[in-house]
Write a structure and sequence with these properties.
This protein is α/β, with parallel strands linked by helices. The chain is built from 33 helices and 25 strands. Among the domains are: 447 residues, Type I PLP-dependent aspartate aminotransferase-like (Major domain) (Aspartate Aminotransferase, domain 2, 3-Layer(aba) Sandwich), CATH 3.40.640.10; 207 residues, Aspartate Aminotransferase, domain 2 (3-Layer(aba) Sandwich).
Length: 969
C-alpha cells in the first residue's frame, strides 16, 4: 500500500472554473508574455495599467465555488421563489414555449452567442428569423414596416413619442396618453419626456379628447388596445379626432388579441407598439422580452432601432441585411432623437418562431381559448352577483368589489392564483395560454361565487363572446409559406438547424470585436435561466413570492458595487443605452436638487461611442465636444479650456476608460479632479470594464457614475444583438436619484422615474452574471482581466509588422483591445477595410469592429476566453491577407479581380465556371487559416451568400416576407 496520497480537500476542489473560462493555460500565457517581453501577468499589469488608478486591495467577494456548488446555491435561491398561476396581466402573461424552440433557440449557443448582424453574409440565418418577426408584427398590426425589435413595451412607447414629435405637423403641444394605458408604460414615457421639455397629459379618452387639452395642441396620442383594465373600445372616432388636430396616433397593442381584433392600421393608427412576450417567451420576472414598433409607409425611414431588409448579393441572389443603417441613431451622436443601440434579437427570434410553429390558425386558436376562459370567468362572476366594469374585453376582466379587493386577492393567492389588486375596490383578472378550468374555479371561489368546474360546459354553452362585433378581424394575416410549412417538430427542428448553419457565432470560432467583448457564456451560467422558479415569475408578484430573486438581485448589486468601487447599483436598465440615460438623469436630478438647474453642459470626447452624445441629448443636456489627441487620449489642453469656458454650466464629463482607442490614459485621475473642481460630475462609460475588473475601480479613481454592460464584461450573451443589461452604478450622493418604478415603491427606490418597463429590467438573465461572479471569485476575475490585456497585446505585437497599431500607451502597450490601421494599404492598393473584413470570412472568422473609432481601421478585442491556438489562427489569417494585399499592390492580381474584392466565396462558386486570376483553392482555402483545425474540409464555415449590395437594399426597401404572389413567381 502507498502512504503518499493527495489530500481529500484538494481532490474535492476539482478544476477551478476560472481555468475553464480563461482560454490560454499557464504554459500558453508564458509563451504570450515572452513574445511581448514580460515575465508574468503582474509585471504586464504594472507596465500597462497606470499606477494612479491601480487598486492594491483584493475584491471582497465570496470565494469561488465549482459548477456543482454554484448550481446548488442557485437551486436554493430559486426554491425561495413561489410560482403561483399568474392572472395579473398588465402586459405580462403566462405562455408555453414549444420545447423545440426552447432547446434549439433559447438554449442553443448557435443563437445566443451570435453578434449583431453587421456582417450580413455570415448572419443570414438570424436575419431571416428577424424578417419573420417583422412580418408577424407588420401583419398583425396592419402597418407595413416593422422593426427588428426594441427593448420592451414601455421604451417602445417612449420611442413612438419621440418619433411622433419628429415627424408630426404640430411643432409643440402635448403628448396625450389614455389613462387606460399600462402604468409602467406611462411611467417610462414620463421619464423620457421630462428632460426634453415634452408635456405629458394623462386623461380618460373614452369620450374623446378633452377640450382643454385640444386647446393646448396635441402632437401625439397614445392608446392601449385592449386597455390595461381589459376594456376593448373602438378607437376610430378618437383617432379621427386626433388626426384632425394634427396628432400622430400610436396604439399599444396585444399581438395575440390582434389575431381576433381589427388591426391598429385598419383603425387608422400611424404607429403600433407593444411586447411580443406572450409569443412563447417566459415572463422572467420582467424580461428580457422583445418590444416592437411598426409604422405606416411615410415613417419607414424614421423608424428607431434596426430594420432587416431584403437585398441581393454579387450573384444577384436574394440576401438579407440590416437596412437603412443610419437609423442606428447613435451614429448621429448629438443630433440623435434616440440612443437605442441594443435590440432584443434572441427574444424576437423566439417570438417569430412561435408564430412560425403555430401559424395563423394556431395563434388564432390560442387567442380564442384565452378569450373563452375570460368570458367564462366573467359569466361566473356575473352569475354570483359580482359587478364587472366592462362588457367588452379580450383576456382581462375588471371586477368591482367595494372595499373588498384586498380580501379577494388574498383568497385567490391562498388557492394558488395571483390576481391584480388595482385599488381598494377593483380586482383585475387576466387569462392566458396557461389558464385552465382549475383557475376559473379558484377565481370564482376567491370572490365567494359558487362556481363548479364540472359545470363549465353548461356555462360555456350559454355564454357569448365578449368581443365587439364591429371590431372583429376579417382580413388574412401570416399568409407567407414560412408560417404554414413547419408544423411538425421534425420540420421545425430542421428549419432552425438550417438557419443556424448559415450563421457564424462563438460556437464556431473567435469573434474579435473591439468594444463588444464577445467572450464565453458558459453553459453552467445559462442553465438556471430556464428553471421555472426564475422563468415563470410575473414581475409584479408580491415581494414574499420573489424572495429568491430579490436576494439574488441584492447580492448582484452589492458585488457589482464592490467590483466598481461605487456605493449603489440599479439593475433596472435593460441595455447599455438605458444605463447611460439613467446615469445622466441621476446627474441631472442631483444638480437640480442642489439648486443648480443651469448645469446642463455635457463634455464628450470626439472619440466617444455615439450613444454617449445621444443619451446626453435625451437627458436634456447640451453636448460640447472635446478634442482627441493624435495618440488617442483626450486632448488635455482642450478639455481644460472647455471646462473653464463652461465652468458655471458644466454638468458632467462623459469619458470611456480605457479610452475608445484601447489605451489606458495616464491622466484620468487628473481629468476627474479638474471636472470636480468646476462643480461637474464624471461619468465613466463602462463599455471597457473588461480591462479593469480586479485591477482598478472607477468609483475610486474619481468617477461618480458608470453604466456597466453585463452582456460584455459579465457574460450575459449577446444573442445576435440582444438581450443586454446595462446597470447603472453611482457614488452615494447620486444614489437617491437612481431609477424608481410605480409598481415597486419602496424606500430604496430612486426619484427619477422608470427607464424600463419592469422594476429590475431583464431580471430573467441576471442569474447568468450572478453565477459568473460566484464561479470566478476575486482572484479569477482579476486573472481574467489580466489575460484579456495579455491577449490584446499579444495580437498587437504579432500584427504590428504587417498593420500599423494606431494607438498605444507607455511602453507601446494597449489595454484589452487594439486598433490597427488599414488606410495606408487602401491608399496604396485600393483594397478597403470592407475587403479585408469579407476575406476574413473565407478564413473562418467574424471581422473585428470596423471603422470605429476611426474610419478605415479595425478594433480587435480577443478577450480572455480565446486560447492561444485561436489567437494564432486569427493572426495568421490577418498576415496571410496582408500578403494578398501585397500581391494586389504589386500588380500580380488586378485591383478589380482578386480574392479580397470578391470575398467572401461560396461553395456554389466552385461548381461553376472560373475566370479569376487566382485558383478555386486560393479562394476558399486561403493560406494561414482555411486549413486550420476545425476550419478545413468538413469543418470549414461556408458563407451562404456572396457579398451583399447594401445600396440596392436601401433603394428598394423590402422589410417583411414577400407576398405569396411574389413567392409563387
Amino acid at each position: 500500500m502507498t502512504t503518499d496520497h493527495t489530500p481529500l480537500a484538494a481532490l474535492e476542489q476539482g478544476t477551478p472554473f476560472a481555468a475553464r473560462h480563461i482560454g490560454p493555460d499557464a504554459a500558453d500565457q508564458a509563451k504570450m508574455l515572452a513574445h511581448i517581453g514580460f515575465g508574468s501577468l503582474d509585471e504586464l499589469t504594472a507596465a500597462a495599467v497606470p499606477e494612479a488608478i491601480r487598486t492594491s486591495e483584493a475584491l471582497l467577494l465570496p470565494e469561488a465555488r465549482d459548477e456543482a456548488g454554484v448550481l446548488a446555491e442557485l437551486r436554493a435561491l430559486a426554491s425561495r421563489n413561489t410560482v403561483l398561476h399568474s392572472m395579473i396581466g398588465l402586459g405580462y402573461h403566462g405562455t408555453f414555449t414549444p420545447p423545440v424552440i426552447l432547446r434549439n433557440v433559447m438554449e442553443n449557443p448557435s443563437w445566443y452567442t451570435a453578434y449583431t448582424p453587421y456582417q450580413p453574409e455570415i448572419s443570414q440565418g438570424r436575419l431571416e428569423a428577424l424578417l419573420n418577426f417583422q412580418t408577424v408584427v407588420a401583419d398583425l398590426t396592419g402597418l407595413p414596416t416593422a422593426g427588428a425589435s426594441l427593448l420592451d413595451e414601455g421604451t417602445a412607447a417612449a420611442e413612438a413619442m419621440a418619433l411622433a414629435r419628429r415627424v408630426g405637423k404640430v411643432r409643440n403641444g402635448v403628448f396625450l396618453v389614455d389613462a387606460d394605458c399600462l402604468p409602467q408604460t406611462i411611467a417610462v414615457v414620463r421619464t423620457r419626456a421630462e428632460p426634453t421639455g415634452v408635456p405629458v397629459v394623462v386623461a380618460d379618452l373614452s369620450e374623446g379628447i378633452p377640450a382643454e387639452v385640444a386647446e393646448r395642441g396635441v402632437f401625439g396620442v397614445l392608446i392601449q388596445y385592449p386597455g390595461a383594465s381589459g376594456a376593448v373600445r373602438d378607437p376610430r372616432a378618437l383617432i379621427e379626432e386626433a388626426h384632425a388636430l394634427g396628432a400622430v396616433v400610436t396604439v399599444a397593442a396585444d399581438l395575440l388579441a390582434l389575431t381576433l381584433l381589427t388591426s391598429p392600421g385598419d383603425l387608422g393608427a400611424d404607429i403600433a407598439v407593444g411586447s411580443s412576450q406572450r409569443f412563447g417567451v417566459p415572463m422572467g420576472f420582467g424580461g428580457p422580452h422583445a418590444g416592437f414598433m411598426s409604422v405606416r409607409d411615410a415613417y419607414a425611414r424614421s423608424l428607431p432601432g434596426r430594420l432587416v431588409g431584403v437585398s441581393r448579393d454579387a450573384a444577384g441572389a436574394p440576401a438579407y441585411r440590416l437596412a437603412l443603417q443610419t437609423r442606428e441613431q447613435h451614429i448621429r451622436r448629438e443630433r440623435a432623437t434616440s440612443n437605442i443601440c441594443t435590440a432584443q434579437v434572441l427574444l424576437a427570434v423566439m417570438a417569430g418562431m412561435y408564430a412560425v410553429y403555430h401559424g395563423p390558425e394556431g395563434l388564432t386558436g390560442i387567442a380564442r381559448r384565452v378569450h373563452r376562459y375570460a368570458a367564462l370567468v366573467a359569466a361566473g362572476l356575473r352569475d354570483g352577483g359580482v359587478e364587472l366594469v366592462h362588457e367588452a374585453f379580450f383576456d382581462t376582466v375588471t371586477a368591482r368589489v367595494p372595499g373588498g379587493a384586498a380580501a379577494v386577492v388574498a383568497a385567490a393567492r391562498d388557492m394558488g392564483v395571483n390576481l391584480r389588486l388595482t385599488d381598494d375596490d377593483h380586482v383585475g383578472i387576466s387569462c392566458d395560454e396557461l389558464t385552465g378550468r382549475a383557475q376559473l374555479a379558484a377565481v370564482w371561489a376567491a370572490f365567494g361565487v359558487a362556481g363548479d368546474a364540472f359545470g363549465i360546459e353548461m356555462l360555456d354553452a350559454r355564454t357569448p363572446d365578449a368581443l365587439p362585433e364591429g371590431l372583429l378581424r376579417t382580413d388574412e394575416f401570416l399568409s407567407h409559406p414560412v408560417f404554414h410549412r413547419y408544423r411538425s417538430e421534425t420540420a421545425m427542428l430542421r428549419y432552425l438547424r438550417r438557419l443556424a448553419d448559415k450563421d457564424y457565432a462563438l460556437d464556431r470560432g473567435m469573434i474579435p470585436l473591439g468594444s463588444c467583448t464577445m467572450k464565453l457564456n458558459a453553459a453552467v451560467e445559462m442553465e438556471p435561466v430556464t428553471w421555472p422558479e426564475f422563468a415563470a415569475l410575473h414581475p409584479f408578484v408580491p415581494a414574499d413570492q420573489a424572495e429568491g430573486y430579490l436576494a439574488l438581485i441584492r447580492e448582484l448589486e452589492e458585488r457589482l458595487a464592490e467590483i466598481t468601487g461605487y456605493d449603489s447599483v440599479s439593475l433596472q436598465p435593460n441595455a447599455g443605452s438605458q444605463g447611460e440615460l439613467a446615469g445622466l438623469l441621476a446627474v441631472r436630478a442631483y444638480h437640480r436638487a442642489a439648486g443648480r438647474p443651469e448645469r446642463t453642459v455635457c463634455l464628450i470626447p470626439s472619440s466617444a461611442h455615439g450613444t454617449n452624445a445621444a443619451s446626453a441629448v435625451m437627458a436634456g443636456m447640451r453636448v460640447v465636444v472635446v478634442a482627441t489627441g493624435e495618440n488617442g487620449d483626450v486632448d488635455a489642453d482642450d478639455l481644460r479650456a472647455k471646462i473653464e469656458k463652461h465652468r458655471d454650466e458644466l454638468a458632467v464629463l462623459m469619458v470611456t476608460y480605457p479610452s475608445t482607442h484601447g489605451v489606458f490614459e495616464e491622466d484620468i485621475a487628473g481629468i476627474c479632479a479638474a471636472v470636480h473642481d468646476a462643480g461637474g460630475q464624471v461619468y465613466v462609460d463602462g463599455a471597457n470594464l473588461n480591462a479593469l475588473v480586479g485591477l482598478a475601480r472607477p468609483g475610486r479613481f474619481g468617477a461618480d457614475v458608470s453604466h456597466l454592460n453585463l452582456h460584455k464584461t459579465f457574460c450575459i450573451p449577446h444573442g445576435g444583438g440582444g438581450p443586454g443589461v446595462g446597470p447603472v452604478a453611482v457614488r452615494a450622493h447620486l444614489a437617491p436619484y437612481l431609477p424608481g418604478h410605480p409598481l415597486r415603491p419602496s424606500p430604496a427606490d430612486g426619484t427619477t422615474g422608470a427607464v424600463s418597463a419592469a422594476p429590475w429590467g431583464s431580471a430573467g438573465i441576471l442569474p447568468i452574471s450572478w453565477a459568473y461572479l460566484r464561479l470566478m471569485g476575486a482572484s479569477g476575475l482579476r486573472r481574467a482581466t489580466q489575460v484579456a490585456v495579455l491577449g490584446a497585446n499579444y495580437v498587437a505585437k504579432r500584427l504590428e509588422p504587417h498593420f500599423p497599431v494606431l494607438y498605444t500607451g507607455p511602453g507601446g502597450l494597449v489595454a484589452h483591445e487594439c486598433v490597427i490601421d488599414v488606410r495606408p494599404l487602401t491608399r496604396a492598393t485600393g483594397v478597403t477595410i470592407d475587403d479585408v473584413a469579407k476575406r476574413l470570412i473565407d478564413h473562418g472568422f467574424h471581422a473585428p469592429t470596423m471603422s470605429f473609432p476611426v474610419a478605415g481601421t479595425f478594433m480587435i478585442e480577443p478577450t480572455e476566453s480565446e486560447d492561444l491556438a485561436e489567437l494564432d489562427r486569427f493572426c495568421d489569417a490577418m498576415i496571410a491577407i496582408r500578403r494578398e494585399i501585397d500581391r494586389v499592390g504589386s500588380g500580380e492580381w488586378p485591383k478589380e479581380d482578386n480574392p479580397l474584392v470578391n470575398a467572401p466565396h461560396t461553395a456554389a462558386q466552385l461548381s461553376g465556371g472560373w475566370d479569376h486570376p487566382y485558383s478555386r483553392e486560393e479562394a476558399v482555402f486561403p493560406a494561414g487559416g482555411g486549413q486550420a483545425e476545425g476550419q478545413g474540409g468538413a469543418g470549414k464555415y461556408w458563407p451562404p451568400v456572396r457579398r451583399i449590395d447594401g445600396a440596392f437594399g436601401d433603394r428598394n426597401l423590402v422589410c417583411s416576407c414577400p407576398p405569396v404572389a411574389d413567392y409563387a413567381g
